[in-house]
Design goal:
single chain, 299 residues, alpha+beta, BirA Bifunctional Protein, domain 2, SH3 type barrels, 2 domains, eight-stranded mixed beta sheet, five-stranded antiparallel beta sheet, 5 helices, 22% helix
Length: 299
């Protein structure tokens, strides 16, 4: 069963070939030696790298498998929203994880780390973008935003839990590198509302070596998450990068919208909201595990 999980220095001279030649993917492995990631697979086009790895999770695929593509025709985010971009423009990849704690997750032995994988990758992306001179922040639960003149959503993350004899987590990243294009560029392709890109922010970067930088940072976060105090350390990193905590928010939930102040994150990654009086909520903070967030204004 598959369950949706809610919760840089670019110094390399060459790009891997999006057609998937073995020398290029081997160069990723060399750059990431010592991390958990590998083997690496590259395909020119696919429907969804997440779907592809979910389909393989019940087999012999091991922890750390990375599948990247030059183009996704059916990329998606939370609530099955489409994530589309012209071929050859953006960074899209997924990884398959089998962390040591997954077999006992949810057994009341400590914080539930499953939903924290999304947070770990979002914090890693924000960290890498900051090293490029950008102001990046995490919008709970799974988006990365840029601030400044070209503010907007620059990346989205989707994590899925695969249960069974060999449980796994598949997590995918879509990061806008060259699409949407700079506003000075005329394009017939519609630009998603609220989206921005590294190109719009004036950054030119090789997307595949950007992937390497993100995976290096993600490996550090995942390694920390293995430790006893890992969830609390990740919470601190997420709070430092959060665009949501400290904002007035509207939370869209099946039982009705909640409006209030986002004030904290729990150790297992939930958002804590102080609701407005008269919202029909119990007195005191409300822990939100699942919901669509709209930022209304900073506190």
């Amino acid at each position: 069963m598959v369950t949706r999980m809610e919760p840089g220095t670019h110094h390399f001279p060459e790009s891997p070939d999006p057609g998937g030649d073995s020398a290029s993917t081997a160069s990723w492995g060399t750059a990431l030696r010592g991390t958990r990631f590998g083997p690496f697979e590259m395909v020119g086009a696919t429907g969804s790298t997440n779907d592809d790895l979910v389909a393989r999770a019940g087999g012999h695929a091991d922890d750390g498998l990375v599948l990247a593509t030059d183009h996704q025709s059916a990329g998606r985010g939370r609530m099955d929203r489409r994530w589309e971009a012209p071929a050859g423009t953006n960074l899209t990849f997924s990884v398959l994880l089998r962390p040591s704690w997954l077999a006992t997750a949810g057994s009341n032995t400590g914080p539930d780390r499953r939903g924290l994988v999304t947070s770990a990758l979002a914090v890693s992306v924000a960290e890498v973008l900051e090293t490029m001179g950008l102001k990046a922040a995490v919008k709970w639960p799974n988006d990365v935003l840029l601030a400044g003149p070209q503010a907007g959503k620059v990346a989205g993350i989707l994590a899925e839990l695969v249960t069974g004899e060999r449980p796994a987590i598949v997590v995918g990243l879509g990061l806008n590198v060259d699409w949407p294009p700079p506003e000075s560029v005329i394009s017939d392709e519609p630009v998603p509302p609220g989206a921005t890109s590294l190109a719009r922010a004036g950054i030119r970067v090789d997307r595949w070596w950007l992937m390497v930088d993100v995976l290096v940072a993600f490996d550090r976060q995942l390694a920390a998450l293995e430790s006893t105090d890992g969830p609390e350390r990740l919470r601190a990193d997420h709070l430092a990068a959060s665009a949501t905590v400290g904002s007035r928010v509207r939370v869209e939930r099946p039982g009705g919208d909640l409006v209030g102040d986002a004030v904290d994150l729990t150790v297992d990654g939930a958002l804590v909201v102080e609701p407005d009086s008269g919202d029909g909520e119990p007195c005191g903070p409300v822990v939100v595990n699942v919901g669509d967030i709209t930022h209304l204004r900073a506190l």
